[in-house]
Design brief:
With 442 residues, this protein is α/β, with parallel strands linked by helices. It folds into two domains: 185 residues, FAD/NAD(P)-binding domain, CATH 3.50.50.60; 145 residues, D-Amino Acid Oxidase, subunit A, domain 2 (D-Amino Acid Oxidase, Chain A, domain 2). The protein is 38% helix and 23% strand. The strands form two sheets. Strands 3, 4, 5, 6, 11, 12, 13, 14 and 15 form a nine-stranded mixed β-sheet that branches. Strands 1, 2, 7, 8, 9, 10, 16 and 17 form an eight-stranded mixed β-sheet that branches. Bound molecules: flavin-adenine dinucleotide. Flavin-adenine dinucleotide (FAD) binds next to α2, α3, β11, β15 and α12.
Length: 442
């Protein structure tokens, strides 16, 4: 990839960044923080969460600096698949059981607004090459038509989400596999090139006046005073408000917060062109996820598959996981035969014990935006608005998330348990699917 030679730290670079995105260039290496600075808001971490908060706060009039330990979006935010869904990664019934119907409805509506905000940003910046397409399908691996009707009613009537129930025939008409039964179709969900969105978001933040410093890891925070002190290896920064958006990598500045996240590595791969055989197997143009959370895929570039599959709580070389992805593709669509991969990659998401993101104020002037798990596009946009409004206007809507406390994720034992639970759950889902298909045949 060609590198542009511009150096960028301010709004003037926004247009250059967008031009670079359009031309398919990688973004150049940017400035480190090498001088002391005073700002209204300091955001730690330049992933989707940090950039979303920074953009919103800057648009509301704050002076904002983002400190990024490596490069913008080097982790999960630059590796995601670009599927933008309503709601959260937690079943709606679990939310109702925990916080009640009314609050769940309010939260759901905020998350849906987050989805629309992502769409609006993509349109506003006319993000080049973002290639937005509509519709996502959540397929069931077992025959649960009756339960599905209940869920559809709740989502549609009580939660105002546009949904359609698809019968088995309709599902199998667009996804030629006997693995799937019913599905929920979300016509307003959408997908795009996730990396271009990240770059577009970065460009918008710069345009709004946000200063982004890369290779500037935060190594310490003194949050006791009115103005907080943030320390990097080369400089100090003072800010009235600090936003912790470092996901699982936050580390020493707030180790106890990092410890509330279970790191989960997600793996993804892009196949080589599959030609006409892909169009025979899949005619659905949007994203497909199964309700066991195992596979997530869609067609890109006409005849390639973008596919993400089982996760681990310990890092594994993505090339090795590529083999697992190829096997999953073959299991679901055996008619595709042997599929070669162009590349495989991974990113770490932060999973909270309750599954909901951490959004809110920990103490005066100290905010957190992390734990977005596997559904981070709409929820980071939502977090950006909630936190920026909290900082700038004293808005307290973020308190809707207060019942989801910071809970220790169990350290190494938690990771071992997480891996074991994931493996058992996948095996259980596999067995349930097998039984459902056997029953159908019988
Ligand atoms: C393979 C894959 C596919 C995915 N697909 C989707 C999808 O289709 N749809 C969807 O909604 N979600 C998806 N996700 C989830 C989504 O990517 C994440 O939820 C989201 O990107 C999390 O964003 P973040 O900003 O919290 O974290 P990150 O992207 O991890 O960003 C945090 C940043 O903070 C920086 N940082 C940490 N500590 C410090 C420090 N002390 N000082 C300075 N900087 C620091 C890090 O360097 C990092 O850049 C996917 C994730 C993966 C891995």
């Amino acid at each position: 990839m060609t590198e542009l030679s511009t150096s960028a730290t301010g709004p003037d670079d926004a247009a250059a960044t967008l031009r670079a995105v359009a031309a398919g260039f990688s973004i150049p290496h940017r400035d480190r923080l090498t001088f002391n600075l005073d700002v209204d808001v300091c955001v730690i971490g330049a992933g989707l969460a940090g950039l979303s908060v920074a953009l919103e706060a800057a648009r509301m009039g704050a002076s904002v600096a983002v400190l990024e330990g490596r490069q913008v979006g080097w982790n999960a935010s630059g590796q995601q698949l670009g599927t933008v869904m309503p709601g959260f990664g937690v079943p709606i019934g679990d939310l109702i059981a925990r916080i009640g119907f009314e609050d769940t409805r309010d939260l759901w509506s905020l998350a849906r607004d987050g989805m629309e905000l992502v769409r609006a940003r993509a349109a506003e910046a006319a993000m080049p090459g973002i290639n937005l397409t509509s519709g996502a399908l959540e397929v069931s691996n077992v025959d649960i038509g009756d339960r599905l009707i209940g869920r559809l009613q709740m989502l549609g009537e009580d939660f105002g989400t546009e949904v359609e129930g698809w019968q088995i025939d309709r599902v199998r008409d667009v996804l030629k596999t006997d693995r799937y039964f019913h599905a929920i179709h979300y016509p307003t969900a959408f997908q795009f090139d996730g990396r271009r969105y990240l770059r577009g978001l970065e460009a918008m933040a710069r345009q709004a006046g946000v200063r982004i410093f890369e290779d500037s890891p935060v190594v310490g925070i003194d949050h006791s005073g009115i103005r907080k002190r943030i320390v990097t290896p080369e400089a100090r920064l003072r800010a009235a408000d600090v936003v912790l958006a470092g996901n699982v990598h936050l580390g020493s500045p707030m180790q106890r917060l990092s410890d509330t996240l279970l790191p989960v590595w997600r793996y993804a791969a892009l196949t080589q062109p599959l030609g006409a055989r892909l169009a025979e197997a899949i005619t659905f143009a949007g994203s497909v996820t199964d309700n066991d959370g195992i596979d997530h895929y869609r067609i890109v570039d006409g005849d390639r598959l973008l596919w993400s599959s089982p996760e681990t709580t310990f890092p594994v070389d993505p090339k090795r996981r590529g083999g697992a992805i190829r096997r999953r593709i073959r299991t679901v669509f055996p008619q595709l035969g042997a599929v070669e991969l162009d590349r495989a990659w991974s990113g770490v998401v932060g999973q909270t014990v309750h599954g909901m993101p951490q959004i809110g104020q920990l103490r005066r002037g100290l905010w957190v935006a992390s734990g977005f798990g596997r559904q981070g596009l709409n929820t980071t946009a939502m977090a950006g608005q909630l936190i920026a409004r909290g900082i700038m206007h004293g808005d307290t809507q973020w308190r809707l998330l207060s019942p989801f406390e910071l809970v220790w994720a169990g350290g190494r034992i938690g990771r071992i348990a997480g891996q074991a639970i994931g493996t058992v759950a996948r095996a259980g889902a596999g067995a349930a699917g097998l039984l459902a298909r056997y029953r159908e045949r019988a």
